[in-house]
TrEMBL record:
Signal peptide residue numbers: none
Biological classification of the source: Bacteria, Bacillati, Actinomycetota, Actinomycetes, Kitasatosporales
Pfam families hit by this protein: GHL10 (PF02638)
One Gene Ontology MF term: hydrolase activity
PANTHER family per UniProt: GLYCOSYL HYDROLASE DIGH
Residue stretches spanning the membrane: none
Protein name (record): Glycoside hydrolase family 10 protein
Amino acid sequence: MRQLARRGFVAGAAGVVAGVVTTVTTAGEAAAVTPRRTGVPARRGGHHVERRELRGMWVATVANLDWPSAPGMSPAVQRAELIAYLDEAVARRLNTVVLQVRPTADAFWPSPHEPWSQYLTGVQGKDPGWDPLGTAVGEAHRRGLELHAWFNPYRVANHTDPSRLAATHPARLHPDWVLPYGGKLYYNPGIPEVRRFVQDAMLDAVRRYDIDAVHWDDYFYPYPVAGQVFDDDATYAKYGAGFPDKAAWRRDNTDKLVRETAERIKEIKKNVQFGISPFGVWRNAATDPLGSDTKAGVQTYDDLYADTRGWIRKGWIDYICPQVYWNIGFAAADYAKLVPWWSEVVRGTGVDLFVGEALYKAGDPAQPAAWQDPAELSRHIDFAAAYDQVRGHVYFAGRDVVTDRIGAMDRVVRDHYRSRVRPPR
């Protein structure tokens, strides 16, 4: 997650720009919300009824962002660091850890399809001497935590040199599967064999481990890079017959990946959930009247060819966790407008809505003024509590949960997570 989304890119007067706060919540907006404290049992008929909600944190492994803190450490040190994140989740009265286990077409388990991740040992394909995913699942469940295995479907490498990949890497064995773009390598989503392969690689973990969910983030087709072309013309010429344009064909490719993966997960283990955490804006209302009242510089439907709203309405996924990574009152993409929009999208579908929260912004001097207030995130939880479709929150990312730069996470726990609760099921 998420180089672009992490920086909160939205559209301003001059196009896509880093977000700058212009307003804060008005008194009228605050008065319109009747917050309820979460984590406190509700009363029904004179009896306490447990309120279930998901309280999660992402633990990112790409580029050693959260864990392991550096490649090449001993198995004992890596394991101790992983356990520390799980213990932190328990101490914060969270109930879910979303662990990145396939960051760049590699694996944090002994996969028959892809090499061991370089972020474990520093050398792609080198056995780290232990099973990180197996350990994570067992230790999470021992602590009463759900473990959602986070996969990135198409990203192959954060560079464009195939020779730097392990000699047995599928991208080297099938160079026709791979396209360079924006300084990175990607599998080409338009090739049916690619779509089947990446499913097989991810679903191996479903078969072998007692994971609670398959989790994807916001990367499908890559985020647009000015002046560069994702060169899938030949693939479109081969497979695109019957589509009005390349955009429709690309969206269909992503649709197929989502639908097929959903079906195959349930064939393997019916109780394993399938959740997706997209960029927070499907489409702006100026583009589509069904869209949100936003002016985002990226629209998932148009730029990533991912119809996140459609997947919900068709019931292909079990939960959606949009990255609503902006503060309340932010003009171009207001948290207070996006949460109600997503709430209405999931209503009546049976798809759970969890809200992705930008803890990493709290106290970052490069962020707008609202993020310098330790209470901003707690206000998010209060605001979202007024919308009955919101069933939890997930915080990005693990290192920020631990360091908690200005005490924003402490404030959330103190205000809302007074006791442990179970995730919705």
